[in-house]
Design goal:
This protein has about 240 residues and is mainly alpha-helical. Helices cover about 60% and strands about 0% of the residues. The two termini are about 30 Å apart. The structure holds iron/sulfur cluster. The site of iron/sulfur cluster (SF4) has 15 residues, from helix 10 and helix 13.
Length: about 240
Protein backbone atom coordinates (compact mmCIF):
# COMPACT_ATOMS: atom_id res chain seq x y z
CA UNK A 1 0.00 0.00 0.00
CA UNK A 2 1.38 3.45 -0.89
CA UNK A 3 1.51 6.38 1.53
CA UNK A 4 -1.39 8.07 -0.26
CA UNK A 5 -3.53 4.93 0.01
CA UNK A 6 -2.82 4.86 3.77
CA UNK A 7 -3.83 8.52 4.07
CA UNK A 8 -7.05 7.91 2.12
CA UNK A 9 -7.87 4.91 4.30
CA UNK A 10 -7.46 7.11 7.38
CA UNK A 11 -9.81 9.72 5.87
CA UNK A 12 -12.40 7.05 5.03
CA UNK A 13 -12.22 5.78 8.59
CA UNK A 14 -12.56 9.30 9.99
CA UNK A 15 -15.45 10.53 7.81
CA UNK A 16 -17.26 7.27 7.04
CA UNK A 17 -19.00 6.75 3.70
CA UNK A 18 -19.39 9.94 1.64
CA UNK A 19 -21.72 10.55 -1.33
CA UNK A 20 -20.23 10.81 -4.82
CA UNK A 21 -21.32 13.13 -7.63
CA UNK A 22 -23.87 11.48 -9.99
CA UNK A 23 -22.58 9.02 -12.59
CA UNK A 24 -25.35 9.69 -15.12
CA UNK A 25 -23.88 12.18 -17.60
CA UNK A 26 -26.84 14.56 -17.88
CA UNK A 27 -27.53 14.53 -14.13
CA UNK A 28 -23.85 15.24 -13.51
CA UNK A 29 -24.00 18.32 -15.76
CA UNK A 30 -27.03 19.50 -13.82
CA UNK A 31 -25.21 18.80 -10.52
CA UNK A 32 -22.20 20.83 -11.76
CA UNK A 33 -24.44 23.74 -12.72
CA UNK A 34 -26.20 23.70 -9.36
CA UNK A 35 -22.93 23.33 -7.41
CA UNK A 36 -21.42 26.56 -8.72
CA UNK A 37 -21.41 29.15 -5.90
CA UNK A 38 -23.82 27.01 -3.88
CA UNK A 39 -23.45 25.09 -0.65
CA UNK A 40 -23.81 21.30 -0.97
CA UNK A 41 -27.06 21.54 1.01
CA UNK A 42 -28.64 24.05 -1.37
CA UNK A 43 -27.31 22.21 -4.43
CA UNK A 44 -28.85 18.96 -3.21
CA UNK A 45 -32.17 20.69 -2.47
CA UNK A 46 -32.29 22.07 -6.02
CA UNK A 47 -31.34 18.71 -7.54
CA UNK A 48 -34.06 16.98 -5.47
CA UNK A 49 -36.60 19.58 -6.69
CA UNK A 50 -35.63 18.86 -10.31
CA UNK A 51 -35.87 15.15 -9.65
CA UNK A 52 -39.39 15.61 -8.25
CA UNK A 53 -40.29 17.44 -11.48
CA UNK A 54 -38.89 14.43 -13.43
CA UNK A 55 -36.74 16.62 -15.65
CA UNK A 56 -33.36 14.95 -15.25
CA UNK A 57 -33.14 13.94 -18.91
CA UNK A 58 -32.31 16.30 -21.79
CA UNK A 59 -35.71 15.73 -23.43
CA UNK A 60 -37.74 16.27 -20.25
CA UNK A 61 -35.75 19.35 -19.27
CA UNK A 62 -36.06 20.76 -22.80
CA UNK A 63 -39.86 20.49 -22.53
CA UNK A 64 -40.25 21.69 -18.94
CA UNK A 65 -42.09 24.98 -18.36
CA UNK A 66 -39.62 27.77 -17.57
CA UNK A 67 -41.43 28.81 -14.39
CA UNK A 68 -41.16 25.32 -12.88
CA UNK A 69 -37.47 25.00 -13.72
CA UNK A 70 -36.86 28.49 -12.41
CA UNK A 71 -38.41 27.69 -9.02
CA UNK A 72 -36.45 24.45 -8.64
CA UNK A 73 -33.12 25.97 -9.70
CA UNK A 74 -33.65 28.95 -7.35
CA UNK A 75 -33.29 26.52 -4.42
CA UNK A 76 -29.53 26.48 -5.16
CA UNK A 77 -29.29 30.17 -4.25
CA UNK A 78 -28.24 33.19 -6.33
CA UNK A 79 -27.25 33.10 -10.04
CA UNK A 80 -30.47 31.31 -11.05
CA UNK A 81 -30.47 33.01 -14.47
CA UNK A 82 -26.86 31.92 -15.18
CA UNK A 83 -27.66 28.38 -14.07
CA UNK A 84 -30.75 28.23 -16.30
CA UNK A 85 -28.74 29.48 -19.29
CA UNK A 86 -26.06 26.86 -18.62
CA UNK A 87 -28.72 24.14 -18.38
CA UNK A 88 -30.21 25.25 -21.70
CA UNK A 89 -26.73 24.98 -23.29
CA UNK A 90 -26.41 21.45 -21.94
CA UNK A 91 -29.87 20.45 -23.23
CA UNK A 92 -28.96 21.85 -26.69
CA UNK A 93 -25.61 20.04 -26.65
CA UNK A 94 -27.32 16.72 -25.94
CA UNK A 95 -29.76 17.38 -28.77
CA UNK A 96 -26.98 18.21 -31.22
CA UNK A 97 -24.69 15.39 -30.10
CA UNK A 98 -26.52 12.16 -29.31
CA UNK A 99 -23.06 10.51 -29.20
CA UNK A 100 -22.09 12.56 -26.14
CA UNK A 101 -21.99 9.64 -23.66
CA UNK A 102 -19.61 7.80 -26.02
CA UNK A 103 -17.50 10.90 -26.74
CA UNK A 104 -16.56 11.36 -23.10
CA UNK A 105 -15.21 7.79 -23.00
CA UNK A 106 -12.71 8.57 -25.78
CA UNK A 107 -9.02 9.09 -24.81
CA UNK A 108 -8.71 11.98 -22.32
CA UNK A 109 -7.62 14.83 -24.70
CA UNK A 110 -10.48 14.08 -27.13
CA UNK A 111 -12.96 13.58 -24.28
CA UNK A 112 -11.97 16.95 -22.76
CA UNK A 113 -12.39 18.59 -26.17
CA UNK A 114 -15.94 17.26 -26.45
CA UNK A 115 -16.83 19.10 -23.22
CA UNK A 116 -15.65 22.49 -24.43
CA UNK A 117 -18.13 25.23 -23.53
CA UNK A 118 -20.21 23.02 -21.25
CA UNK A 119 -18.30 22.97 -17.97
CA UNK A 120 -17.38 26.66 -17.60
CA UNK A 121 -19.03 26.80 -14.20
CA UNK A 122 -16.77 24.11 -12.73
CA UNK A 123 -13.74 25.02 -14.90
CA UNK A 124 -11.12 22.33 -15.61
CA UNK A 125 -12.06 20.64 -12.37
CA UNK A 126 -15.64 20.28 -13.66
CA UNK A 127 -14.46 18.77 -16.94
CA UNK A 128 -12.30 16.24 -15.08
CA UNK A 129 -15.22 15.40 -12.75
CA UNK A 130 -17.33 14.57 -15.81
CA UNK A 131 -14.54 12.35 -17.17
CA UNK A 132 -14.10 10.58 -13.84
CA UNK A 133 -17.68 10.09 -12.65
CA UNK A 134 -19.55 9.72 -15.96
CA UNK A 135 -16.73 8.66 -18.32
CA UNK A 136 -14.93 6.16 -16.08
CA UNK A 137 -11.52 7.73 -16.72
CA UNK A 138 -8.99 7.35 -13.89
CA UNK A 139 -8.23 11.11 -13.64
CA UNK A 140 -8.17 13.46 -10.66
CA UNK A 141 -10.35 16.60 -10.75
CA UNK A 142 -8.27 19.24 -8.95
CA UNK A 143 -10.68 21.62 -7.27
CA UNK A 144 -9.38 24.29 -4.89
CA UNK A 145 -9.96 22.02 -1.90
CA UNK A 146 -8.27 19.00 -3.54
CA UNK A 147 -5.34 21.20 -4.56
CA UNK A 148 -4.90 22.54 -1.04
CA UNK A 149 -5.24 19.21 0.75
CA UNK A 150 -3.03 17.29 -1.69
CA UNK A 151 -0.25 19.87 -1.63
CA UNK A 152 -0.27 20.19 2.16
CA UNK A 153 0.12 16.41 2.26
CA UNK A 154 3.11 16.64 -0.07
CA UNK A 155 1.53 15.88 -3.47
CA UNK A 156 2.41 18.47 -6.14
CA UNK A 157 4.29 21.74 -6.19
CA UNK A 158 2.92 25.16 -7.10
CA UNK A 159 3.14 25.99 -10.83
CA UNK A 160 3.03 29.31 -12.69
CA UNK A 161 -0.77 29.21 -12.63
CA UNK A 162 -3.60 27.03 -11.27
CA UNK A 163 -3.67 24.89 -14.44
CA UNK A 164 0.02 23.99 -14.08
CA UNK A 165 -0.34 23.42 -10.32
CA UNK A 166 -3.30 21.10 -10.96
CA UNK A 167 -1.19 19.15 -13.47
CA UNK A 168 1.60 18.82 -10.88
CA UNK A 169 -0.90 17.55 -8.29
CA UNK A 170 -2.36 15.04 -10.77
CA UNK A 171 1.10 13.70 -11.63
CA UNK A 172 2.15 13.38 -7.99
CA UNK A 173 -1.07 11.59 -7.05
CA UNK A 174 -0.89 9.28 -10.10
CA UNK A 175 2.42 7.85 -8.87
CA UNK A 176 0.68 6.52 -5.72
CA UNK A 177 -2.78 5.47 -6.90
CA UNK A 178 -3.82 2.36 -8.83
CA UNK A 179 -5.01 3.41 -12.32
CA UNK A 180 -8.68 2.60 -11.73
CA UNK A 181 -11.60 5.01 -11.77
CA UNK A 182 -12.79 3.62 -8.41
CA UNK A 183 -9.48 4.56 -6.75
CA UNK A 184 -9.60 8.03 -8.29
CA UNK A 185 -13.24 8.60 -7.30
CA UNK A 186 -12.46 7.79 -3.69
CA UNK A 187 -9.35 9.99 -3.77
CA UNK A 188 -11.32 12.92 -5.16
CA UNK A 189 -14.28 12.57 -2.80
CA UNK A 190 -12.18 12.28 0.37
CA UNK A 191 -9.53 14.90 -0.49
CA UNK A 192 -12.24 17.39 -1.53
CA UNK A 193 -14.32 16.74 1.59
CA UNK A 194 -11.29 16.99 3.86
CA UNK A 195 -10.39 20.34 2.28
CA UNK A 196 -13.87 21.67 3.05
CA UNK A 197 -14.13 20.40 6.62
CA UNK A 198 -10.79 20.21 8.49
CA UNK A 199 -8.07 21.18 6.01
CA UNK A 200 -9.62 24.58 5.33
CA UNK A 201 -7.82 27.41 3.58
CA UNK A 202 -7.73 29.63 6.65
CA UNK A 203 -7.12 28.04 10.04
CA UNK A 204 -7.03 24.33 9.19
CA UNK A 205 -8.04 22.23 12.18
CA UNK A 206 -4.79 20.25 12.37
CA UNK A 207 -5.16 19.10 16.01
CA UNK A 208 -8.38 17.23 15.04
CA UNK A 209 -7.00 15.87 11.76
CA UNK A 210 -6.51 12.10 11.38
CA UNK A 211 -3.49 12.78 9.11
CA UNK A 212 -1.64 15.15 11.45
CA UNK A 213 1.23 12.72 12.17
CA UNK A 214 2.19 12.44 8.51
CA UNK A 215 1.54 15.90 7.12
CA UNK A 216 4.42 18.09 5.91
CA UNK A 217 1.93 20.94 5.39
CA UNK A 218 1.03 20.97 9.06
CA UNK A 219 4.66 21.50 10.01
CA UNK A 220 4.99 24.31 7.47
CA UNK A 221 1.81 25.98 8.76
CA UNK A 222 3.02 25.83 12.34
CA UNK A 223 6.47 27.09 11.34
CA UNK A 224 4.78 30.11 9.75
CA UNK A 225 2.73 30.90 12.84
CA UNK A 226 0.09 28.18 12.71
CA UNK A 227 -2.59 30.25 11.04
CA UNK A 228 -2.52 28.77 7.55
CA UNK A 229 -3.03 30.86 4.45
CA UNK A 230 -5.29 33.72 5.40
CA UNK A 231 -6.01 34.74 1.81
CA UNK A 232 -9.20 32.79 2.31
CA UNK A 233 -11.29 31.70 -0.62
CA UNK A 234 -15.02 31.54 -0.11
CA UNK A 235 -16.14 27.97 0.60
CA UNK A 236 -18.50 28.46 -2.33
CA UNK A 237 -15.51 28.68 -4.70
CA UNK A 238 -14.02 25.41 -3.58
CA UNK A 239 -15.92 22.82 -5.56
S1 LIG B 1 -2.68 18.11 9.47
FE1 LIG B 1 -3.58 20.10 8.97
S2 LIG B 1 -2.64 20.73 7.03
FE2 LIG B 1 -2.31 18.53 7.28
S3 LIG B 1 -4.00 17.53 6.19
FE3 LIG B 1 -4.59 17.72 8.33
S4 LIG B 1 -5.73 19.67 8.46
FE4 LIG B 1 -4.56 19.66 6.55
Amino acid sequence: MTRLEHLLTALRKHYGPLPEPPSDLFTLFVWETLSWHATPKKRDAALAALERLRVLTPTAMGRAPHAKLDAAVAAAGPYAEQRLKALRRVVDAFRERPDFPTAIRAPVPAALKSLKGLTQMGGDSGAYRVLLFAGDHPVLPVSASVDRTARRLGYGVPGRDFKQTAKNVREAVASELPPTSDAYRQAYVYLAHHGLTLCKQADPECPSCPLKRDCPGRKALFASGGSGDRAARSPLEEM
